[in-house]
Amino acid sequence: MEKFIIDTKERKMSSISRTIRMKEETFDRINEINRRTGVSFNRIVNQCIEYALAHYDEQEGN
Question: Is a pLDDT exceeding 60 seen at residue 4?
Fold first, then answer.
């Protein structure tokens, strides 16, 4: 599987507001990546989701 790399380029994107819950440890890790890279928390979460969906195998997911 290809390595996950945070894209630090500024881009506008259309979006939908949604509230999610996550483990405190996940929140802390994303905040640390945000602090180190300067990439917004929201963009990091979106990139993580896009990466996971791109690598999701429906046959394995059952």
Answer: yes
